[in-house]
Amino acid sequence: xxxxxxxxxxxxxxxxxxxxxxxxxxxxxxxxxxxxxxxxxxxxxxxxxxxxxxxxxxxxxxxxxxxxxxxxxxxxxxxxxxxxxxxxxxxxxxxxxxxxxxxxxxxxxxxxxxxxxxxxxxxxxxxxxxxxxxxxxxxxxxxxxxxxxxxxxxxxxxxxxxxxxxxxxxxxxxxxxxxxxxxxxxxxxxxxxxxxxxxxxxxxxxxxxxxxxxxxxxxxxxxxxxxxxxxxxxxxxxxxxxxxxxxxxxxxxxxxxxxxxxxxxxxxxxxxxxxxxxxxxxxxxxxxxxxxxxxxxxxxxxxxxxxxx
Length: 309
Fold this sequence. Notes:
9 helices; two-stranded antiparallel ribbon; Arginase, Chain A; single chain; eight-stranded parallel β-sheet; alpha/beta
């Protein structure tokens, strides 16, 4: 079976203004690189139309209405100090959330074996009622709740290897025993959360904070603890918040990972979880702000997904 690559054209309409790190080219360089491969094991798909009812499983109704009414008719506006929006941001935002629905449905319908959603804006800093850190809707959380509610899964794991802690995702699932949230991240650093003491009501939050300067060997050694937690939880489905800003070249953080590490990380997740979830894995783009490092790292991430059987 093929690996799904879910992307939209509308990401290009989410204009964040000159000099903003969360730029249009982040998604386009990944798409262009993967299209050059002309790999017959990739099935390109568009996002699904997402309903308010699905979004309301994660976000407060008042917040959804606030977001819908915030997009300007021209120029730029902001939902917070970091999260800039423009007229075209609305379609991109709802397509980003719809991409994870398309990926999950594709796997459930045996159309694809796994998937990577290459979309923007990212999502993992957004909680139930507040945007933050370039994130407007929490795409990965929407996917997890969809798995629980639509497909009646009992154990969904979210692994977040973005260099910044996925505070929004943690908030959403802090008291949900059906979701395990695992995060490796630079600490102390933005957004300030993610200590080892944040464990969740059901010991379902597992943070692995690492210092600035963490290199490949140090990271991969620490990642073994994430895999151990994954084995203990026995997930039926795995979601990945794939942030590539832990690359040594990234301008927004100070980890020292190399491109090949993202292939290794992905392969280890797949191999560790296959006995429990039979390869049901959906990944979605979060951070990554050096375009060359992002393009190359995402390619190796997708390589691992394609190769997995």
